[in-house]
Amino acid sequence: MKCGKLKRNFWLSAEIECMLSLIKELRAEQTRSTTTTHYTFTQIANKMKKRGFPNKSPTQIRRKWFQMKSAYLCYKKGNVERLFLIPEKFRSDIAQFVEDGNKIGRPRQQPQQSGDYKKVNTPMDNFVNQLNHNNTLLIEDFNSLQESLMHYEHKCQSLRDYNIIKYIST
């Protein structure tokens, strides 16, 4: 029987999370630079099966990885819409992988500098910082509006109480 084209598959958050954690594990374990990408994705697929995600082939995992990586790289070049191909929960992980500049299946290189390492903000860091800032402003506005509403509610209750007392006393 001829092997046909793979069906389009949808990824659950748990599957993506498992895939990324396995990529992190493999990057930490690997010491040789001769590891092939195909072998690496086969390892990830086998480990995902052991963890309860049997429906992902090495090809599907490879495609998902490169799709998310490509989306992040396009985002860095100014195509903000592509960022939405990466679930929000995993954007910082993908950014970290890409910004490290290391490929899956290759050993991690240690930084040359010691002590003087200065963190450089990536576009994803800037985006997240702006979101946090906007969130803070929204929370402040919400709290201010909530306080005004409570003040208005107290005034209304005072007027109701006054009218009830006036009605009862007459």
From TrEMBL:
It comes from the Eukaryota. InterPro entries: Myb_DNA-bind_4. Residues 8-82 form the Myb/SANT-like DNA-binding domain. Pfam families: Myb_DNA-bind_4. This is Uncharacterized protein LOC115631821 isoform X1. It comes from Drosophila lebanonensis.
